[in-house]
Design brief:
elongated, mainly alpha, 60% helix, 88 residues
Length: 88
């Protein structure tokens, strides 16, 4: 089909003609300067993850002794280890 075969309203025709034309985009004049505020939350989350991993890796070898000392069964110990998974 050619353009002549399709009957389109003049307003729609100009819309379709202009839709695929490349236009230069200029940056806005009121650009906001980036701050370093994003580094603090990222660092806190990173160190929290490392701390949680270290806690779990230290508690895991001592789980048997902790179970005997605190009279904790295996299901309760699994719940305790599951709490650490939330931190990840």
């Amino acid at each position: 089909m050619t353009k002549a075969a399709i009957k389109v309203a003049p307003l729609a025709q100009s819309y379709y003609d202009n839709m695929f034309q490349a236009k230069a985009v200029e940056p806005p004049n009121n650009t906001v300067r980036r701050t370093h505020g994003r580094h603090l939350p990222t660092g806190i989350i990173f160190f929290h993850t490392i701390n949680t991993y270290m806690d779990l890796s230290c508690i895991a070898p001592a789980a048997g002794a902790m179970q005997k000392y605190l009279n904790i069964d295996d299901i309760t110990m699994d719940h305790i280890f599951g709490i650490f998974a939330i931190g990840y």
